[in-house]
Amino acid sequence: MFEPLEVFLRDLKRIFSRSEWAIRLLRLEKLKQPASQPGLVMVQIDGLSMTQFNRGLQKKNLPFLQKLLSKQRYVLRSFYSGLPSNTPSVQGELFYGIKGCVPAFHFFDRQSGRDVKMLDPAFVEEFEKRLSANNTGLLAGGSSYSNIYTGGAKESHCCWSRMGWDGMLWAANPLVLPFLVILYIDIFFRTLVLVVIEFFLAVIECLRGTLKGRLFFRELEFVWLRSLVCVFLREFITAGVCIDIMRGMPVIHLNFLGYDEQAHGRGPSSSFAHWSLRGIDDAIKRIYHVMQESSFRHYDLWVYSDHGQSKTVPYFVKYGRTIEQAVHEIFGSTPGQIDNSLKVRRERTQSRGFLLGQKYHKDSQPTSLTQTTADVMVTAMGPLGHIYVKRILNFSEIRSYAKKIVSEAKVPLVLTKEANRIMAWTPGGCFIFPDEAEKIFGKDHAFLDEIKEDLMRVCLHPDAGEFVIAGWCQGEQAISFPLEYGAHASMGPEETHGFALLPMNAPVEIENNKNYLRPMDLRHTAQNFLNKENLSFLSISSEGLYSKPLTLMSYNVHGCAGMDGCISTERIARVIAKFNPDIIALQELDVGRTRSGKIDQAEMIARKLEMKFLFHPAFRWKDEQYGNAILSRYPMALIKSGALPDLSDGRQKREPRGALWVSVEFEGKKVQVINTHLSLWAKERGVQVDALLSEEWLQHPDCQGSVILCGDFNSIPGSAAYRKICHQLYDSQVILAGHRPRSTWFGYYPVSRIDYVFVNAGLQVNSIAVPRTDLEIKASDHLPLVTKLDFA
C-alpha cells in the first residue's frame, strides 16, 4: 500500500536531483544498462594507516564509516601496501596487476635516461602506457578521480597522468556555467565557509610552527595548500563522482588527498590531519546516499587506504644538511644539480595545488644524468631513495661506501647488490637479505614475509640505484629525506599497514590464505565483483556444503520490485547471497509477467545463486504466473504443491493462494519444508490455516521428523490464524532465548511481524536475523527472515 507513495517520492527526488540536472546541462552521456548490472565505487583515503583509522573512529572523526561497520554489515580488514609503500606502486599493482612497478617516488628512469618523479604528468602518462601495454586497467569503462594513473578509465579527472577535467567543464556552453553555480550553490557556499575556517586554522598553525623553529615560508605555503587540497579539490571530486553514479558508470575510483597532505606536514597523528578526516567522512556519506538513488546499477562502496604514514624527523632538521650533501661528501663528488629538500617540497606543493590544470606542471622538466656534472645522483623523495653512481664499482668499493653512508651520513638502512645476493647495512652491522630480515625489521613486523619478497623486487628493479637507502630499520628513529614530519614509502609497520573497509559479502580473494589484503588481492576481488555472472561467490561463509547449522531464509520479494520502483532479480539475489542460506523460501515471484520483463524470476535467482529450485504458481493468466518457490543447495524432492481454499464468490474474486512442500536431504536427514503465502482476509486465512494443519499437509503421514512451515502469513502475533498454528508448531522468533522478535514489514519502517518460520520439536533455533541494511530496506517491501536451525 505504501509502494505508490514511495515510487512517487523517488521520482520527485530524481526530478529535483542536481546530479540529473548537471548531466543534462553538461550534455553528458548516460550509460543506460539493465538495473541488474553491478557497479563499484572505490574510495581511497590516501595515507591513513590502520592505527590512525581506528583512532579516527575513537575520536568520532569518522561517524559514517563507523555506521558502515555497525549497521551496514561492513568488515574491517588489514591492507598491506607492498613496497615501495607509496601511491604509484600501490595503484600500479591495483590497476594493472604489476607489483613494485616503481622503485621509489623519485628515481632515475634508465629507459628514458632521465631523473624523474611520479608527480610529473608527462612522465607519468608515458609510464602508464608501459603499464597498460599488456595489462587491462581495472577502471576500464569507468571513471578515475585524483589518482596517479587513470587505471584505463574511460574518463579521468585530476589524475597525474592526465591532468584536468577532460574538458568536461570548459567545453560546456558558457551560458550553462551560471546555472551550474546556482545548481551547486550550497556546495560553493559550503566550500567557501570551509576554506575560510581551514585558512584561519592553518594560519594559526603556521605561526605555531614558526615559533617551534620551522621555516616560515614553508609553513606559509602550507596554508593555501591545505585549503585547496583538503576542501576545494575534495568537493569537486565528490560532485563529479555523484554525477558519474547517476550516469551509471560501472566502476569509479577516487582518491582523497587531504589527510595524507596534512600528515606529511604535521605528522600522522596530529589534530590537523585528523580534522581533515571529518570532511572526507562526510564526502563519502554523500556519495553513498547518491549510490542508493541510482536507477541503472546496484553500487557497492569500498573504502581503503593505499598505505599509512610513520611519524618522522626530517633529515635536514636532524643533521643540518640534506641527504644529497651528505652523500656527495662521502663520494667526494661535485654536487652539480642537486634536489634539495625544500625544492622537492615546493614541487610536491605545486603538483597537488594545481591538480585542476596543467599549466604549472609544464614549467619543470626532468633532468638526465648526463646533464649534471656530478658523478653521483641521489633521488630521495620520502624515506626511500636511491644513489646512482656513473662509474662501475667493485665489491670492495660498494662495501666501503655502504658503511660510510650508514656511519657518516647516518642513514638507518643501506641495501646493495653483490653477485646473486642482497646485503643490508645498518648501525647494527651487515646482514644478508632476505635470510636475516628479522634482524633488520624485527620478527614482530606484521608483513615480514611480504617485505622480504617486495624489498628484493625494489633492489632488483631495473631502475634501482647502486645503493638503496631507507629511513627506518628496527631500533632506529624514523627519518624522511625531504622536509616532512610524516612519511611513507619504506618498510615501517605503520607505512605498510593500511585498511580495507568492505561489505561482509565482498568476493574477497586472498592469496595463500593470508589474514590481510594487498593491492593484487583487492584487484582480483574487484574483478570478481564486476565480472561474475552468478552470485554464489558473494556468500559470506566459506564453509563446505554440509556444515551445521541449517540456514533457512523466508523472504517475500514483492515480485522483485524494490521500494525505489525498480524490478531487479539481481538485487534480490544479492540480498540472499549475503547470508549464504541452505534453503530459501520465496513468496510473490513472477514468471512471464509483463511488468517483470516476461522473465522467470525464480529461475533467474536460482541461476545467479547456483541453486536448485521448485516453483508453484498460485495463479495463472495466459502465459503469466505468480507464486512461491523454494531454492536449495542440497538435494530436494517435491512432495506436494497446490492451491489453498478460498472464499471467492461470484461477487468478489480474491487472489488465489497456494503452498509448496518439499523434502530436503541435509546431512543424511530429511527436512520437510512447506512454503506458503496466505490471504489478506482474516476469515479466508483461517480456512487456509485449517487446511495447512490438516492431513492434507502438516498431518500427512509423510510429514514426519523435522518440519518447517514458513512464509508470509499476513497475520500478526496473537491473531486467530497465528494462535492456531502455535498449537502445533513453535514460532522460531519466540522460542529463541534472549531474542526479541523483530518486525519484517514494511521495509523502510517495519511495524509489523507477518513473516514467520514455524518449526516442530525436531528442530532447535540456533539464531535469528532480520537484516535491515540499506540494501534489504530497498530491495523489497518485506525484510528477509534468516533462521539457523539445529537438529534436536
> Uncertain runs with pLDDT below 50, 5 residues or more?
164-171, 336-351, 353-373, 540-547
Helical residue percent band = 25-40%
| Cα end-to-end separation | 40 Å
- Beta-strand content: 15-25%
Tell me the major beta sheet: 8 strands, mixed
Secondary-structure blueprint of this entry?
Elements: H1 3-15, H2 18-25, E1 38-45, H3 50-58, H4 63-71, E2 74-80, H5 87-96, E3 106-109, E4 114-117, H6 121-131, E5 143-145, E6 155-157, H7 177-183, H8 185-211, H9 216-247, E7 251-256, H10 258-266, H11 271-293, E8 298-304, E9 310-311, E10 313-314, H12 315-319, H13 323-331, H14 341-353, E11 367-368, E12 376-379, E13 384-389, H15 395-407, E14 413-418, E15 421-426, E16 429-433, H16 437-441, H17 448-459, E17 467-470, E18 479-480, E19 486-487, E20 497-503, E21 516-517, H18 519-531, E22 550-556, H19 569-577, E23 583-591, H20 601-609, E24 612-621, E25 624-632, E26 636-643, E27 658-666, E28 669-677, H21 682-692, E29 706-712, H22 720-726, E30 730-731, H23 732-735, E31 755-759, E32 763-769, H24 774-779, E33 785-791
